[in-house]
Amino acid sequence: MLLRSFIGKLRTQTPVRMTESQPKKADLSRLFVAAILALNVALSISIVLLNKAVYTYFFFPNMTLTMIHFIFTTLGMLACRFLGVFAVKSMPLSKMIPISLTFCGFVVLTNLSLETNTVGTYQIIKALTTPCIIVLQTLFYSKSFSTKVKLTVIPIILGVFLNSYFDVKFNFVGIMFATAGVLVTSLYQVWVSEKQSEFQCNAMQLLYYQAPLSAIGVATIIPFFEPVLSKGGIFGTAWSAKALGLVSATGIVAFAINVSIFWIIGNTSPLTYNMVGHLKFCLTLMGGFVLFHDPLSSLQLLGIIITFTGIVFYTHFKMAEQKEEKERKEKEAHERQKAVERQELLKLEMEESSLELINIEGKTEGVDK
């Protein structure tokens, strides 16, 4: 029943209106939203910890795991299409290949970062995506950012530096993977925004094309970087039922995260989405320290706090600016509408004046006769 309710709400993609005449329905709607938010938080934390467990305890090949995630996502998207969750939109494959390659790159590199770094360092370095996107959009897309937004980059970078520099499990290769992952992830996020605007599509319509193309892309390079038939490879090792079960679970969770994010963006406010993101940030760090006993020095903790502060301020300033921009556009639209109404009124008055003038002239001619 919960699944049917979720699919039904996902199809509509419209928030449920709360009315006084329907208090029970309103309460159920709030509970449903809270349940989906809690599910997204749990899934997002689970995918990081499950992936880390697969790498740490079973030494499962990284790129192969990424390919499995893409396959599960592809199957999940086909199921969503069959259930009518979204409508397929025709898009040129030539335009989808570049964004699919960056999708491959960011997932592979972030997974390699998770495999070679502590959960804390992995999560903290991901925060550099924000300043990286600012740089990319400023240099290549002529987008401007306020001074307040730009200043939030300072605590984010400082916090990441403190955490990474004083990490007792510092891994140079892992830092390189994480840095490359940040660059590719930033490019991917910028391109996703551009493509959604270009093709007037939503995230799931885009993901419908990305997932299978990304699975094929990763599959073609796996033989060059990982064993396939030899020991340690997907077909060269007698994986235990526990390992295969855990790998399958990561694939299911990876797809479920995409669907829950799509629902949250469509049915809640940007503030809710960002606050959920902050909660996931903190809980993921906590999970790494508790489950994998990652060491944490006082300077690392200070770095985490500084980074988190920068992220919160960035979110606050961006949302305030977006609200002001929305209000400005609404005001401009209202003024344009009033101008159109004034023009129509003036036109109507002129027509009435013309009719009156014609009537007066007609009466005058009648008197002359």
Structure write-up:
The structure is a single chain. The protein is mainly alpha-helical and 369 residues long. Helices cover 82% and strands 0% of the residues. The protein contains 13 helices and no strands. Helix 3 (62-82) packs antiparallel against helix 10 (203-225), helix 4 crosses helix 10 and helix 5 packs antiparallel against helix 12. It is globular, with a radius of gyration of 27 Å. Mean pLDDT is 80; it is low at 12-21.
Provide a quick synopsis of the model.
It is built from 13 helices and no strands.
Key terms:
369 residues, 0% strand, 82% helix, mainly alpha
Radius of gyration, whole Å? 27 Å
Number of β-strand runs: 0
Mean pLDDT, to the nearest integer, reads 80
Q: Give the proportion of residues in helices.
A: over 70%
Largest sheet: none
Whole-Å distance between the termini? 86 Å
Structural class of the secondary structure composition? mainly alpha
Beta-strand proportion: under 5%
Shape: globular
Helical run tally: 13
Which runs of at least 5 residues are low in confidence (pLDDT < 50)? 12-21
Order of helices and strands: HHHHHHHHHHHHH
What topology does this entry show?
Blueprint: H1 2-12, H2 23-58, H3 62-82, H4 93-116, H5 119-126, H6 129-140, H7 147-151, H8 153-165, H9 172-199, H10 203-225, H11 241-267, H12 270-291, H13 298-368
Helix pairs in contact: 2-11, 2-12, 3-10, 3-11, 4-9, 4-10, 5-8, 5-12, 6-9, 8-13, 12-13
